[in-house]
Design a protein that fits this description.
By secondary structure, this protein is mainly beta. It has a domain at 31-116: Beta Barrel (OB fold (Dihydrolipoamide Acetyltransferase, E2P)), CATH 2.40.50. The protein has helices at 25-29, 59-62, 76-79; strands spanning 33-43, 52-57, 64-69, 83-87, 93-95, 98-100, 103-104, 106-108, 114-116. Strands 3-2-1-4-7 form a five-stranded antiparallel beta sheet, with no helix packed on it. It has a two-stranded antiparallel sheet with strand order 5-6. Strands 8-9 form a two-stranded antiparallel ribbon. A hairpin with a 2-residue loop joins strand 5 and strand 6.
């Protein structure tokens, strides 16, 4: 079953969002989160919901990875050259024929709108997120 968000229901409103169950620290630290710089932003008309295709440089070890992101609340110009945080070891996923290689991270507004996490401009690409 597809994950569907009814924005009018405000499913991510902090006053109704239930806490997830506890996990051990090993589960959290197993996720490889890195800082990357958006180098390309492409339209993704094949996606069911409005989305961009992002190409992100994660530095000399990981190189360039691509993802699709439902962040059309950002203009192409706002995304290009922006530092983002990505979970880079969750496996690859096919989305409308496109191979998404990582998950870009953001905070969810009450209606499900994603606000990308902010990183100081002087953080080197490829830096680990703790």
């Amino acid at each position: 079953m597809a994950h569907v968000i009814d924005p009018d229901a405000r499913p991510y409103a902090p006053e109704v969002l239930e806490a997830k169950p506890d996990i051990d620290a090993g589960g959290f630290f197993a996720v490889d989160m890195r800082v990357g710089r958006v180098t390309e932003v492409e339209d993704f008309p094949e996606a069911r919901k409005p989305a961009w295709k992002l190409t992100v440089d994660f530095g000399p070890v990981l190189g360039t990875l691509r993802t699709s992101a439902q962040v059309k609340n950002y203009a192409r110009e706002e995304l290009l050259d922006r530092l983002v945080v990505g979970a880079v070891n969750l496996g690859r996923k096919r989305i409308a024929g496109f191979e998404s290689q990582f998950l870009v991270l953001g905070a969810l507004e009450a209606d499900g709108t994603v606000r990308l996490l902010a990183v100081d401009d002087d953080v080197p690409v490829g830096s680990a997120v703790a």
